[in-house]
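Page 42, continued from yesterday. The earlier attempt failed because a stray header line got pasted into the input along with the sequence. Redoing it now with the clean sequence only.
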Amino acid sequence: MTSAYIAAIDQGTTSSRCIIFDAEGRIVALDQREHHQIYPRPGWVEHDPTEIWHNVQAVTRGALDKAGLSRADLAAVGITNQRETTLLWDAATGEPVHPAIVWQDTRTDRIIRELAGDAGPDRFRRSCGLPLATYFSGPKVRWLLDEVPDLRKRAEQGEVLFGTVDTWLIWQLTGRHATDVTNASRTMLMSLSTLDWDPALLDAFGIPRAILPEILPSAFVYGEARGDLGGVPVASALGDQSAALFGQTCFDPGQAKCTYGTGSFLLLNTGSTPVPSERGLLTTLGYRIGQDEPVYALEGSIAVTGALVQWLRDNLGIIASAPEVNELAAQVEDNGGCYFVPAFSGLFAPYWRPDARGVIAGLTGYVTKAHLARAALEATAWQVKDVVDAMAADSQVELRELRVDGGMTASDLLMRFQADVLDVPVVRPTVAETTCLGAAYAAGLAVGFWPDQETLRARWEADAQWVPAMSATDRDRGYRSWRKAVDRTLGWLDD
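This time it went through. Structure tokens are written below.
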């Protein structure tokens, strides 16, 4: 059947993927290719934009070939991407002027300190919803303009273009210089109220408006693709965590999703009004469908969750593979009084304490490696509870259910414990690829492939659900111990 499918391009931190979905939202084919991680100096992380573009082309062709389809079978293509990663390229030739600076890169720490000054890291939070931090795009652009010879002059003359990865792909596919509201909201340069580039922020960061893309809705026909996808509408763009929120059909205020990966990201739909955070959360864009009102979100970022399991495997050697942590943890009924706080590079939301370092607290001669494994899994659930509690206090909305995705949701023990400590049901959907699904859903809405969001909501199906069974007394006792363990991580670094 002609135009019976939607393709989603997922350009992530370590790889690029293309997934093709049918009208029921089911996966038809998937192709994936990794790209190089470049570490030129300690704390610096770069990608090759040209390699990324070539890989995106390759996985798109690969997914179509695996499905036995052609571009004529696609109603639209959507894009989801690693956020904050920053690119500048020549407006005439399309050649990158510098490798992409990846979101993890910390080279802008001096710029951050200078911009914060006496006002502190929240200097611009009221305008853009974000604290000054190295991983947002604005400071990275400033660094490039300051450090690459003649680049600022060329930028002011309109000879250079800036974009996050979505912009780079939209430009390559369609020739249009554009981004969506979710990615623009991660630059520190967009006003949350106007959804446009903020002149005061541009002035503070020293960034000429001439290099910036136009800001458009998340579900929107950016143009028709050229090349291998010639004629296919490019009809959505969302940052990866917003795409997962949309793919989980968290369309109502108070609905939330958590993606469990190397770290974990929890987003709460707060409706059409941005909610300022006083508890270490980020105020960001959830999505915008066409000319509908934008939907805002509160976001909590947790640095180390799945990475802790990898640490048990690679550094301690108490498991041979990541899935073994569940078998080991299941050998004991509780953590034996042991609490693991993985502040390996400080604590992220809601604490934001770079001076913290990891601890294992409550050790006695009774504790075994099985207790350590269980404490490591429970650490993820406690960290998510910290974020959920902060969200409830900021938004005045109590969570009723948490929708989950990501690799760690395969752990029944973790998901059951998560439901217990949150005291709400935890639900995993049938389609686990929620990031790509969200990009596909948004693209499908933009071209009328699906008529409305209610149709998408009806597509969402639960694969598994965990309901709380822990007593309030046990929950409170465990959380008190967790918070005592967190307190012991603080102030470890003097400088």
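Notes: The longest strand covers residues 27-34.
Reminder to self: strip header lines before submitting.
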